[in-house]
Amino acid sequence: MAVKLEDRPIEQVREEVIDTLIYSYSHGVISNEAFERRLDQAMKSQIHQEIADLAADLQKVEDPEFTTQKERQFNVNYGSPESEETDTIVNILGGSGRSGQWTVPREIKILTIMGGSDIDFTDAIFTTPNVTIKILCLFGGNDIFVPENINVVSKAFCIMGGIDNSAPSIASRQAPTLTVEGLVMFGGLDIKIKTTIKEKFVAFANQMKTMFNDKG
After folding, report:
1. Do 114 and 164 fall into the same domain?
2. C-alpha distance from residue 26 to each of 38, 43, 190, 207, 212 (Å)
3. pLDDT tens for each residue of the chain, 216 residues long
4. What number of other Cβ atoms are within 10 A of residue 6's Cβ?
5. Domain that holds residue 18
6. What interhelical angle do 32-44 and 10-26 show, nearest 10?
7. Which residues pair with 109 in a beta bridge?
8. What is the pTM of this model?
9. 3-class SS of residue 61
10. Where are the beta strands (DSSP E) in the chain?
11. What is the chain's Cα-based Rg?
12. Residue 139 falls in which region: left (phi positive, over 0), alpha (psi -120 to 50) or beta
């Protein structure tokens, strides 16, 4: 006997509906306007039936290739622990950063004096579930970009400066946790999402549309 819709975990229902919307759009079953409208509604609604109705007229996804591509796109990148345990970034009267598919160590130390740094974890490869960033920022600025599917805990404090944390605090128990601690004085620290989950859904849908059109 099937479980009642309202008794199922709502995030599971939401994921299935979004998968169906992406798959249908990528195969030309629904238009771009309909896809984005339904996607917005699926992400905002907290009612099981409302979410399910958004894909009631569409065929469910039964495509192993689609599932494989989705896992590659949305799962956190984990790799073998081949990097150094600690990475030190020093910015004095200058700037530096990390971005792309770089390997994340267990601990990152950032010293910024009249300079700046950009640390982008969007496509980073994690080697441990717990990463600590220790920061000392004097008369400078630091930007930390994170994806929505990792946990962020900010313990840093500031004196005559500013700390803005707009990243999610809890993603899931399986996701890596990024802990930021230290001191910002006469400077700034911004922790923010570079690409929202909706933007990732839309980008993935367009990627799948191109892939399936090329095959056709």
Report:
1. yes
2. 14, 19, 35, 8, 7
3. 678 988 899 989 999 999 999 999 999 999 999 999 999 999 999 999 999 999 999 988 888 888 888 877 777 777 766 656 889 999 999 888 898 889 999 999 999 999 999 999 988 888 888 999 999 999 989 999 998 878 888 888 888 888 888 776 555 566 889 999 999 999 899 998 888 888 889 999 998 898 877 665
4. 11
5. 5-76+197-215
6. 170
7. 88, 134
8. 0.71
9. coil
10. 86-92, 95-98, 103-104, 107-113, 116-120, 125-126, 130-138, 141-146, 151-154, 157-159, 162-165, 177-185, 188-193
11. 20
12. left
Q: Which two tokens stand for residue 117?
A: 């740094």
Q: Are residues 187 and 152 both part of a single domain?
A: yes
**In total, how many domains does the chain have?**
2
Statement to judge: residues 16 and 57 lie in one domain: yes
CA distance 3 to 16: 15
Contact between residue 201 and residue 156 where contact means Cβ atoms under 8 Å apart: no
Distance CA 145, CA 150 (A): 11
Query: Are residues 108 and 133 in contact, defined by beta-carbon separation less than 8 angstroms?
Result: yes
Structure tokens at 158: 């500031």
Three-state DSSP class for 78? strand
